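Input chain follows. Return structure tokens only.
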Amino acid sequence: MRRALHLARRGEGWTSPNPMVGAVLLRDGRVIGEGYHHAAGMAHAEIEALEDARRRGEDPAGATMVVNLEPCCHHGKTPPCTDALLAAGVGRVYVAHKDINPLVCGNGIRCLTEKGIEVHIGVLAKEAAKLNEAFCKWMLVRRPFVVLKAASTLDGKIATASGHSQWVSSDAARRYAHRLRRRYDAIMVGVGTVICDDPQLTCRLPYQVECRQPLRIILDSCLRTPPTAKVVSGALPGETLIATTDRADPKAMNLLKEAGVEVEIFPAAPNGKVDLAALTDTLGKRDITSVLVEGGGRVLAACLAAGIADKLSLVLAPKIVGGEGAITSFHGELARTMDEARQVHDLTVRRLGHDWLMEGYFKKPTCLPD
């Protein structure tokens, strides 16, 4: 199953809105075939493993299939995997956990067991569920899994009082940030970040690793995004969506649309900013299963205040900035007392170059069905 999870991760950034799935076919403890889901619309992992076995001259009949997610039993863009397993004569199947998709959710397992195939459930279930945590949330509530990402100094600053922020973290941490951009469907910042830093908001990995570019989302309630900004220029790969309100300047909207940028009006929250709950509802309907929020501090705080944040990815650099005017990671009042402070659960800490990476959850990860 660990090998299946390793294979599944090869589809990272390409399979959405499908889950990442890997499969290993065994006979007498020997691997005779393996595969993974390469991208949405392509063959599923089980099919890849069966075909790999046949290419090796191996007969799948009577073999054991190990897969990190319940085999599908319905017709989508590809035929049911359960049909292929039955036709191949596979003897037994080990599954990490059931598919939370209501079209599957136990039906795939039942289809196999009713035909006499031995099915075991629960091997490395927690690890497998974490791999597809974004898919699980989106499938349950049709809203994207939202990750708040920041890099700050030890005293919680993401920029100096003058606004200087390049660079808070190390090269290793910035490479990790680009791996996150590859993993998630969209990347979101506020218009202040666009004005101050003019970022590209693209996935750029070393060694010319191919990336599926995330949708760039700019929160801009009054449409202050400069027409000269890189995210507007049209020279970057990927697409840009500017989320605004009815306070937007019509002339600015026309200029941005003429530049090829998508501009959509959303309801305004009581503070006049874009209603983040309404935005995530719309993104979920567009099959955006995950969003990486890169700030700045006010946007990160707003996501927490709106209750849309699921996970934290915080890089701590061994630096001290100080200063009352320096911007903090979460620049906004979130708690009047310590009892009201947002709790981070299941926190993990590891080195990342010269920095420390802390990751945890604001909400308990989406539960899988029994």
